[in-house]
Amino acid sequence: MAGEKNRTGLKCNDTLITAQDKAHTPSMTLHSPWDCFLSSPIVDENSKEATVYFGSSDGNLYALNATDGNMLWKYDAGGAWIVGSAVIKDNVFYAGTSDSYLFLALNTKTGKEKYRFKTNGYVFGTSSPKVNNGIIYSGSADGYLYAVNLKAH
Fold first, then answer.
1. What's the CA gap between 73 and 64, in Å, rounded?
2. Separation of alpha carbons 149 and 146, rounded Å
3. Which of 41, 95, 122, 141 could tie 86 with a disulfide, CB 3.0–4.6 Å?
């Protein structure tokens, strides 16, 4: 795109993902080809600076500045994959994990955990969370659809 020389992108190949600007200057690299196929990035353009969030099979959730590709923060999910769909509502990022069976709520600005909800199965790739009337809905590999009241947290 003309005039967008500072835009960034994710370059995927069979061994790594590299966030880079138009001059191909890397700002971070993940060493997992699975992230190219399993993670569902989400862009928050309503924040002061547009931010790209994506989970990874390295057990972390990343927030990158969408303009320059710099990492804003990284959340350690204790080795559990964060590779499914996510949703942002009122400056809170909601996503599920694999092995820890958690549905997480993180502050979009800091990456700090606000709360967690434990299910009995994987909460990734099986469902896309949705928010409606103050309730977030998400499925889990345990066969249940969960409805969590956001006002109670």
1. 7
2. 10
3. 95
